[in-house]
Structures are given as C-alpha cells and as structure tokens.
Specification:
The chain is an alpha/beta fold. The chain is about 60% helix and about 10% strand. The chain contains 24 helices and twelve strands. It has helices spanning about 15-35, 40-55, 65-85, 90-95, 95-120, 125-135, 145-150, 155-185, 190-220, 225-245, 250-260, 270-290, 300-330, 335-345, 350-360, 375-415, 430-440, 465-480, 500-510, 530-540, 575-585, 595-610, 625-630, 655-665; strands at about 360-365, 370-375, 420-425, 450-460, 490-495, 515, 545-550, 560, 590-595, 615-620, 635-640, 670-675. Helix 1 crosses helix 2, helix 5 packs antiparallel against helix 6 and helix 7 runs parallel beside helix 16 (about 375-415). The chain starts with 16 loop residues before the first helix and ends in a 13-residue tail after the last strand.
Length: about 675
C-alpha cells in the first residue's frame, strides 16, 4: 500500500478502470504541453511518463492486459497510417530506393551485431545472429512527428518507410530460421510452409482488400461505419500476417498500402483516422513502451551494463552508417539523411518480439539445473535499455530533420503558390458532399482556407423559407469541409438572378475556380448545363468544373481525361493541368490522358518531373468515343476538357458530346472542364 493510501481510499497500483483511464489521458494532455517548452519531442515525453507511472517507477499503473491491448492497437495503427499516407506514385518510382535502403539498414546492423555478439560478448554463433537481427529490426515510432508536420510524402520518408518493412521482414525471417535451427525443426517442409504462407498472405491483403474496400465505400456513406470498417481491415491484415508467420505490424502496413487509394489524403475519413490515432491509440502505445523501462537494470550487474552499452553504441552506429550510405547513393540532403536515421533508429516492436522469442528458447540446462537460453538475461535487460536509448535518439533526430524539411517546404510554398479560391455554388443538398469532396481533392492539401460555398436567391421571387433552406445547404457544406480539416466559408446572397450572384461573387472574391453540379433534371444530356451554367460560362472567364457524380470520388480507380487538339494553346491550360495533377497526388488513382500527341508531349514532360500515376493514349478524333468507352470500367470517371466557341481548341464534336455521354458513359461519373480563355481575366491568374 502506497503511503498516500492512508489519506485517500485508493489502492496502488490503480485497479479502478476510471482512474486508470483518467490518469493516462491526463498524461496525454499535459506531457506534450510541458515538454514542448523544453524542446523535448512529445513522443519521448509520453515514453518517459510511462516509465514514471509504470511498475518500475511509481507503480501507479500495471502493464496489464488492457495496456498491452491498447499498445498493440497503437503500434498497428502507426504501421497502418504509414502505409495509408504513403504517396503510392512516388513509392512506385522510388521502390528500388526503398529496397536499397532496406538492404543497407539490414546488412550493416547484421554485420555489426554478429561481430559484437560473437567476438566482443562471446556468444555462440546462433545467439550472435539473433542478436544481430535485433540490431537490424526497427520501429517507426517517430512517424507521428512526420505526419504531424505534413511531410509524410517526402522522398526520405518514402524511402525510410519502405526500407523499414523490408528490413523487418528480413530480420524476422532470420529470427524464424535461427529458432528453427535451434529447435531442430528447419526441415524442407518448414521452408515450403513459410514461403507459401507468406506469399498467400501478401497476395490476399494487396489484392482482396482494395476490392472489399471499394465495394463497401460505394454502398455505405455513414461516417462511423466507414471508420469502424477501416479498423476491421487493420486488424484483419495483422491477423493474416500473424497466421502466415510474420509479425502483425507487416500485415497492418500492407493493409494501409491496400487501402491507400480508397482514402484520399484530403478526405474526411483520413482526417478521422489521423485524429483518433494521435489522440488515443498512438499515445497508449508510447506510454506502454515507457512502462517496459526498468531503470534498476543500470545497477543490477556489470554484464547488463556491458551488453547494453555494446548494443546501444553498435545499433546507433550501424543505423547512422546505413543512413549515410543511403544519402551518398541517392544524393539526398543532410536533413533527409537525419530524417532517415531518425525514423530507422528506434527499436521497439520487432525487437521486443525477437528478444522474447530468443529468451524463451531453451537449448539445455546447466549442471545446477538453470536453463541455457538462446538469448540470456543480459541481452533481455540490455534490450530494455536499448529501447529507451534508441527511442530518445530517434525522436530527437526525426524532430530535427522533419522540422527543417517542413520549413523548407513552407518557404517554397510561400514563394511559388498564388492565392487560390474555389467557389462551390449550391442548389441541391444531395450533391453537397460530392461537390465539396471534389473541391478538396483539386486543391493542395496544405491550403486549408481556399473554399467557399454560395447559395443565391432571386430577390424578385424571395420566400422566407429560402433563408432556412440556404442555411441548411451551407451548414452541410461547412460540415463536409470540416470533416477533412478544411475551412469553408458559407455565403448567402440575394441578387436579380442566380447567374449575376455567382458572377459578382467571383469578381468580389477573386475566385480562381468554380466547382458546380450538373443540371439535375437532364444530367449531362442535351442542354445538360442548364440556363444557369450556360449563363455563368458566358459571364465568367475562370476554370470551371461541372460535375455529375455517380459514385463517391474516393472510390474512383481510374480517371480518363479527354483533351482536344490545340488545348495547350489556351491560356488556362497549365492551370487545369495543375489541378488534375493535385487530384492525382491526393487520390493516387491512375490518370489516363487521351488526346493528340502534340498536346500529350507537354503532359509527358510534366509527368517526368512530378510523381503522378499518369498514362497516355493518342486520341485525335472525339467521334471515336465508343472505342474509348469500351476500355472504361464501372469505377472510372470521365473528364472532358471543353472549349467555348470560336476558340482555338473548340471542336464541332463537343456539340455531340451529350449524346456520347448518354449512350456510352451514362453509368460513369463525368466532369466537364471549361478552362480560362485568353482575355483580360486571364491576367488575374498569371496565365
């Protein structure tokens, strides 16, 4: 009984679940606030707090099944989020870089570990190889820092995350093989079982999860159900990996990769995933890690100090050397090298799994009856100290590298990005979520104040009910934008007519883009725009997107962009191209550009410089639309770059487009793009 128990009717360690949860949440709240003033990363603060309240500290909370469950969920959440936030187009381009880094960060620590274990500490060769596997494995414990600073798609992060999965798979494979040899079970059947189970697991997650996810998101729009579905997929992926003989963290990461294109970076669902993870799951994991730390291990015996010192120095030096080799190989900056070192230097999850397996493998007994373990008590205690040291190094290094990279991106953005404002005219409540979703995907992710929605009412036919209806529409738009962490300003306006209201708002607010729904009654057929849209196009010379949604845009697998000849000669060409490039980066979907070769050459050149999953197809005649329709699938969306009459890119076939849309693409989402044309207004956008 703790002395304070004589004053308060509270037994320690705490058993009341209410008090335990309150204490942990109070730590999650206060630790970052206090340590930020000392410039200590909040991740390290939560680990230290866990050590203080844990069984080896003040013994306020035991590391019982509830803490282990929450911590396991937090670790899986980190790995899932790292896969989910990865830029798949950039990852595809840089996959070989991740492979090279994975080989560096595996082979260098393996060499250090075998040398340190066998020739410095004097362990048998199998124990030394397993110790080296502890050196090679790593945990992305500092990934939340990267995510919070908004640089999860930096090349260094992509390389580090991909390399982490590669090195953990190889390190845990070494663990499996060493245990197999130690127990005498490494026969031919062992290798067949391992290879087949791993291949089936990876194929099941990467191939089936996207199909299941797309089917679910197309049929369920409930926010809570979508989030719960994501959690189910995370733990299902972890379970499948565990059943295949891999660590669950591998399955969680693969689940993130599989769901990557279904959960855009700017979507409300992504915002919920990040919010809940940063508020609950990840802090519980970090506090649980801190509870493992036993400061008394420093004073137990000389062997623990010796083993821990060799492990800490060896693993830090090896991971730093691997980061330096990666920097030299790919000509990265010093900050990117620091970031890679920080992300790869922490050892928690796979390291704990490996050391516990090695500790529980008994090779024999001494004459006194004591067990001879594959990894002894010295390594076990040394591993706990190594976790503390490497987590400290990881958080400080990641914070430094990520902060410098984020500052550089802010400077570039301030120098390069013009002011942008996207206006969304609203008329029907049913179309609000999809119009807002399209607008958020067309703008840069970091631009949080670029949206405004307008509902206009004819002042000659005003009805008192119009105000309530307008407020309902605008509130729905504000909520839809807020769900993705964007600010949307709602505008209500009386005017002589709707067209004049929208045109006046465009001029008053210097609007750069217009996102509006297709005519509700006729869709994209004859007079598909309706008088309002036609009037807006006649009055405004800004990039205009007219959208007819058939399914949620997040479930679109491929975007087909049909471009007319001489589109590159129009003033607004680079602007709408940049919008579509942003859409490609935010969604990760395939972008199929169809048009004349001369026009596509401009896009090919841009694709070489910017990581977007772009495909190109020659299309000289819009009257061949039926041939294009044969290549599209249900989960595709069609984009048509239009032109106003008497412009260089105008085609007579554009007048026949409504018929093509009705006959060939009636079950596809369609977006018409009307670019900025040459004229006085074009100068407002620097075009």
């Amino acid at each position: 009984m703790f002395p304070i128990a004589s004053l308060l009717p509270i037994d320690l360690p705490l058993e009341d679940p209410i008090l335990k949860f309150m204490l942990i949440m109070a730590i999650v709240l206060t630790a970052p606030l206090l340590l930020n003033r000392l410039r200590i990363p909040y991740l390290l603060g939560l680990i230290i707090a866990g050590a203080v309240i844990g069984p080896h500290g003040l013994n306020l909370v035991l590391r019982d099944s509830s803490i282990i469950l929450s911590g396991t969920a937090g670790l899986l959440y980190i790995m899932f989020q790292s896969g989910l936030e990865m830029d798949m187009n950039d990852f595809r381009r840089n996959s070989w870089r991740s492979l090279v880094f994975g080989l560096y960060t595996f082979s260098v620590p393996m060499a250090f570990g075998i040398f340190a274990g066998h020739w410095i500490l004097g362990y048998p060769i199998l124990s030394s190889i397993l110790l080296a596997a502890l050196f090679a494995s790593q945990t992305l414990i500092a990934y939340p820092i990267v995510s919070k600073l908004g640089i999860a798609r930096d090349k260094a992060v992509t390389i580090a995350v991909g390399g982490t999965i590669i090195t953990d798979i190889m390190a845990l494979s070494v663990l499996t093989v060493v245990v197999g040899f130690s127990t005498g079970s490494a026969d031919n059947a062992f290798w067949y079982r391992l290879g087949i189970s791993v291949a089936v697991c990876i194929a099941a997650i990467l191939l089936l999860f996207p199909l299941i996810g797309r089917w679910f998101f197309k049929r369920c729009s409930d926010n809570v159900s979508q989030y719960v579905f994501v959690l189910v997929m995370v733990f299902l992926g972890a379970f499948l990996a565990e059943a295949a003989g891999l660590e669950p963290i591998i399955g969680a990461f693969l689940a993130g990769l599989a769901m990557n294109r279904l959960i855009p970076a700017t979507s409300p669902l992504m915002n919920r995933i990040e919010f809940v993870g940063n508020a609950l799951f990840i802090p519980f994991f970090l506090i649980g890690v801190g509870m493992l730390i036993d400061y008394r291990a420093f004073f137990k015996d000389w062997e623990t100090i010796e083993v821990a010192s060799v492990m800490i120095v060896g693993v830090t030096a090896a991971k730093y050397l691997a980061a330096v080799l990666t920097q030299k190989t790919f000509r990265l900056s010093r900050d990117q090298r620091t970031l890679i070192f920080g992300l790869s230097s922490a050892h928690v999850a796979a390291t704990l799994a490996a050391v516990m397996v090695g500790y529980n493998v008994i090779l024999g007994h001494t004459p006194d009856g004591d067990p001879i373990r594959l990894l002894d008590d010295g390594v076990l205690n040394g591993t706990i100290l190594m976790i503390l040291a490497t987590c400290t190094v990881s958080t400080f290094a990641t914070q430094r590298g990520a902060h410098n990279i984020a500052l550089g991106e802010v400077r570039e953005k301030e120098e390069a990005d013009p002011a942008e404002q996207i206006l969304i005219p609203l008329a029907n409540e049913e179309s609000v979520p999809e119009l807002v979703s399209l607008a958020t995907l067309l703008k840069p992710r970091k631009l949080k104040n670029a949206l405004c929605a307008l509902h206009a009412v004819n002042n000659t036919e005003s009805d008192p009910r119009d105000v309530k209806r307008a407020q309902k529409l605008l509130d729905a738009a504000v909520r839809a934008a807020a769900a993705s962490d964007d600010y949307l300003q709602g505008l209500f306006r009386y005017d002589v007519n709707i067209v004049n209201a929208i045109a006046s708002t465009v001029l008053e607010r210097n609007v750069s883009d217009l996102v509006m729904g297709a005519h509700r009654e006729h869709g994209l057929t004859e007079h598909y725009l309706g008088k309002t849209a036609e009037g807006i196009l006649a009055r405004n010379n800004i990039t205009t997107f007219i959208y007819k949604p058939v399914q949620p845009i997040s479930t679109i697998q491929r975007h087909w962009i049909v471009i007319p000849a001489r589109a590159e000669l129009e003033a607004g060409f680079p602007y709408w191209v940049q919008r579509l490039w942003t859409l490609g980066r935010n969604t990760g979907a395939e972008m199929h550009f169809c048009g004349p070769d001369r026009t596509l050459d401009y896009l090919r050149e841009k694709a070489e410089k910017s990581p977007v999953n772009a495909r190109f197809r020659t299309l000289d005649d819009w009257d061949t639309m039926p041939d294009l329709a044969a290549d599209t699938r249900t989960d595709d969306a069609l984009w048509f770059v239009m032109s106003r009459r008497d412009r260089s890119s105008y085609l007579p076939a554009m007048g026949r487009l409504p018929d093509y849309l009705e006959r060939c693409f009636s079950r596809r989402s369609c977006i018409l793009i009307y670019p900025v044309q040459a004229g006085e207004d074009a100068n407002r956008f620097g075009l």
